[in-house]
Amino acid sequence: MSRTSLAMALAIAVLAAPPAFAQDPAHGHDHAAGSVAAEAAEAAMVVDAFHAALKAGDTAAALALMAPEVMIFEEGGAERSRDEYASHHLGSDAAFAAASEATVTRRSGWAEGDVAWITSEGRTMGQFNGRAVNRLTTETMVLKRHNDGWRLHHIHWSSRAPGPAS
Q: What is the distance between the alpha carbons of residues 63 and 21, in angstroms, rounded to a whole number?
């Protein structure tokens, strides 16, 4: 992905982000739960750009945001590189993202030096492969700042069916 394409993807992600996640450092939104620290804001934009790329079916853009050695954990399984993810779950993840609507209900993020971690909670609903989807989701992404921007180094996804009151 070129720097121009990456910048465009990040701009789209920022414009599409829900206003609830806008940060206002003047009002103490620093490291509080449910907020993204100012130093992690660009890393959070990369997380959003990754999800936007999956939803759009732009798997090349999604892969460009990942470090070659990315480690992805999901439902007890692991994919240990960008190439392994590309050859296994990338296509189905993109199809699932396109067929469902994911809403982030809470996000926190911190950065220290060249490492950031973004945690998100949400809900995904829709239809996929002829079945209704209704899942509460959690996600942790660890990113590292490279010369050309933040890259995903670790993803951990988890989901469950909502309980009766959810």
A: 25
